């Protein structure tokens, strides 16, 4: 057993009878609890002094990785730097202490901020109306599909139950459609990674409710046939849904509404710089053409995750009209630079122009037996978070890289140098890479066993 405090569980630091708190004397009458809701014995909680607890969790917090630590190239998630002015605005006591049930007359300032954010998001996306109520991206997807379903049903068109989804789409797209009670129909991609328009044509009929797309797509490739795709779907009576996960490269370049999309959800926690990960926090506003506004469903009685919205508001105002136009082009430049610097040692399955992200298919030299998983684990030894791996499912050894616009040339060059070094290690000492990480708090874990037989509680008598 390693004696370092941060390598041990809090339960392992427990000492019988040791406490770090003192409760005041109970001033209330004694009440007996019913036996069916009472414990038969005290819970097995760790017994530690305050200093041990503080040191333990402080040291553990140092094992977390985020954009404040280093480059976070998590493809399709847009893990950009979160400016501290956003945090300063969102932590103002006048906003932090708001309660969702307090009278509307007491939150006029907050409502004005929300209304201003809606207008800005409409301008950025080309939509006619926006609701801030959805609390996450998936919540926004469901909301958007409910709008589409409500629109068709209001016209008595109940047979439109199919949603077309490209095979390169995010997994949330078919999941959201299924949750909404709609049927998912997959549309194939061509060798260049874009939607196969001919395959799409075979699936268009009067049962299609919508087509869900993100543009650029999950491979980071702009769908150059987007206007034709929109025309085809609209001609058959369907609507176009824009998944906002990849909106970042479009900022300052073009708008989904101008492409012909009817409904869109945004990820404020991605494109508009709120720290996220580990399940939250998130915010998934939904926009639509003005004539669809009446179909906004009541998915949330409140304003959504207000402090996330505040961060987006601060981010947009900090950039202003001039600099928000540079977000997309800079994100595209950074990704293109990394791709150009590495494509001789990492296999690039789809050549040509990509936008904010791109996908490698593992190392070019497959003879070493070093996999994408091995590369990702070895990156941890050098202090980098791994990119998204084994997604999209179009390639066997996918490695999706998205640096965002936040990173400097020096930061990106450091990341490139490490990936090149790992490619060289795979040739000269493949076992070193295959057994990584070597410098992390724990070594290679059995991912399958952890998923099939998770240990979620500490044994009472270890």
UniProtKB/TrEMBL annotation:
Q: Which EC class, in a word? A: oxidoreductase
Q: Which Gene3D superfamilies match?
A: 6.20.440.10, Aspartate Aminotransferase, domain 1 (3.90.1150.10), Type I PLP-dependent aspartate aminotransferase-like (Major domain) (3.40.640.10)
Q: What SUPFAM superfamilies has UniProt attached to this entry?
A: PLP-dependent transferases
- Function, as annotated: The glycine cleavage system catalyzes the degradation of glycine. The P protein binds the alpha-amino group of glycine through its pyridoxal phosphate cofactor; CO(2) is released and the remaining methylamine moiety is then transferred to the lipoamide cofactor of the H protein.
Keyword Oxidoreductase attributed:
yes
Q: Which reaction does it catalyse?
A: N(6)-[(R)-lipoyl]-L-lysyl-[glycine-cleavage complex H protein] + glycine + H(+) = N(6)-[(R)-S(8)-aminomethyldihydrolipoyl]-L-lysyl-[glycine-cleavage complex H protein] + CO2
Taxonomic superkingdom: Bacteria
Domain Aminotransferase class V, which positions?
Answer: 165-277
Keyword set, alphabetical order: Oxidoreductase, Pyridoxal phosphate
In this protein, which residues make up the domain named Glycine dehydrogenase C-terminal?
A: 330-428
EC number(s) given by UniProt: 1.4.4.2
Query: Pfam families, per this entry?
Result: Aminotran_5, GcvP2_C
Q: Which PANTHER family match?
A: GLYCINE DEHYDROGENASE (DECARBOXYLATING), MITOCHONDRIAL, GLYCINE DEHYDROGENASE, DECARBOXYLATING
Oxidoreductase: present as a keyword of the record? yes
Q: What is this protein called?
A: glycine dehydrogenase (aminomethyl-transferring)
TM region(s), chain numbering: none
The UniProt gene name for this protein comes to gcvPB
């Amino acid at each position: 057993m390693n004696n370092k405090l941060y390598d041990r569980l809090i339960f392992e630091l427990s000492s019988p009878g040791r406490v770090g708190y003192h409760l005041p004397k109970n001033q209330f009458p004694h009440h007996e609890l019913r036996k069916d809701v009472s414990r038969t014995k005290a819970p097995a909680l760790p017994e530690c002094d305050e200093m041990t607890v503080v040191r333990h969790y402080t040291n553990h917090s140092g094992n977390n990785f985020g954009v404040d630590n280093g480059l976070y190239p998590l493809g399709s998630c847009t893990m950009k730097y979160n400016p501290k002015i956003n945090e300063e605005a969102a932590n103002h006591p006048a906003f932090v202490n708001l309660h969702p049930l307090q009278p509307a007359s007491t939150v006029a300032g907050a409502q004005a901020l929300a209304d201003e954010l809606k207008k800005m998001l409409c301008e950025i996306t080309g939509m006619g109306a926006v609701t801030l109520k959805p609390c996450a991206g998936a919540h926004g997807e469901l909301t958007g599909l409910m709008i589409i379903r409500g629109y068709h049903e209001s016209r008595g068109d109940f047979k439109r139950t199919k949603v077309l989804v490209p095979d390169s789409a995010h997994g949330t797209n078919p999941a959201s459609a299924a949750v909404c009670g709609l049927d998912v129909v997959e549309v194939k991609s061509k060798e260049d990674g874009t939607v196969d328009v001919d395959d799409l044509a075979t699936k268009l009929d009067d049962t299609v409710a919508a087509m869900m797309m993100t543009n650029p797509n999950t491979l980071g490739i702009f769908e150059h046939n987007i206007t034709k795709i929109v025309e085809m779907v609209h001609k058959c009576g369907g609507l176009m849904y824009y998944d906002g996960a990849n909106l970042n490269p479009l900022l300052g370049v073009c708008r989904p509404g101008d492409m012909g999309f009817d409904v869109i959800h945004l990820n404020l926690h991605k494109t508009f710089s709120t720290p996220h990960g580990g399940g939250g926090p998130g915010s998934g506003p939904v926009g639509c053409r003005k004539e669809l506004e009446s179909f906004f469903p009541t998915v949330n009685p409140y304003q959504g995750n207000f402090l996330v919205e505040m961060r987006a508001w601060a981010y947009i105002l900090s950039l202003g009209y001039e600099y928000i136009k540079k977000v997309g082009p800079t994100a595209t430049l950074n990704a293109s630079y990394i791709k150009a610097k590495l494509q001789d040692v990492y296999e690039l399955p789809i050549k040509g122009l990509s936008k904010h992200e791109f996908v490698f298919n593992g190392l070019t030299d497959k003879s070493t037996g070093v996999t994408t998983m091995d590369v990702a684990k070895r990156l941890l030894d050098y202090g980098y978070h791994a990119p998204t791996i084994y997604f999209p499912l179009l390639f066997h050894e996918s490695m999706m890289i998205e640096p965002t616009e936040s990173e400097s040339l020096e930061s990106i060059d450091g990341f490139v140098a490490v990936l090149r070094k790992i490619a060289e290690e795979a040739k000269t000492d493949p076992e070193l890479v295959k057994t990584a990480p070597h410098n992390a708090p724990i070594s290679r874990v059995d991912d399958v066993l952890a998923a099939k037989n998770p240990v979620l509680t500490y044994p009472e008598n270890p």
